[in-house]
Design goal:
Helices cover 32% and strands 10% of the residues. It is of the alpha/beta class and 160 residues long. The longest helix is centred in the first third of the chain and has 19 residues.
Length: 160
């Protein structure tokens, strides 16, 4: 079974447990401010990968689900205060958060990247030591590399 199928199954199983406890309606919290994962359309409706995944999982479980918008800073307090039954909002698993809430297996990985136009250094040369001291690994292409121009770029989604 590939990783994406295992991940979907894990999230589905987690929501199924919630669904057995709250059989009438499962409420899932998301932020609505982190495209393409979760955001709002022109009409103010929640959209994005996490919203679509939540709806597919609920449909597969045979349960009604309501996606609840919640600002990021209030996400965990809203879950523990029972405003909704689960969070689907790309939350990193930390020891501090594990003290308060439980996590399923992750359903996606997001790798942070920084891209700048060739010939622009934005002070990176001067700040490389500061950035490294902060524990951030940053590499700069060497002068023989060929930067990818945006129209030629390709993007891939890797579930984790």
């Amino acid at each position: 079974m590939n990783t994406l199928k295992k991940t979907i199954f894990s999230v589905l199983a987690s929501l199924l447990v919630i669904g057995n406890v709250y059989a009438d309606n499962i409420k899932i919290g998301t932020e609505g401010a982190y495209p393409p994962w979760n955001s709002k359309d022109a009409s103010g409706n929640l959209i994005g990968f996490e919203v679509e995944l939540a709806n597919v999982l609920c449909k597969n479980m045979g349960h009604n689900c309501t996606i609840v918008e919640q600002d990021w800073d209030g996400m965990i307090p809203a879950l523990t205060g029972k405003k909704f039954d689960a969070i689907m909002a790309g939350m990193s698993i930390t020891d501090e958060r594990k003290k308060v809430i439980s996590f399923s297996q992750g359903y996606a990985d997001e790798v942070a990247s920084l891209a700048i136009m060739g010939g622009t250094n934005f002070g990176l040369q001067r700040d490389m030591k500061t950035i490294s001291a902060a524990g951030i690994n940053l590499t700069k292409p060497n002068s023989t590399s060929n930067p990818i121009k945006l129209p030629d770029a390709s993007f891939e989604f890797h579930g984790g």
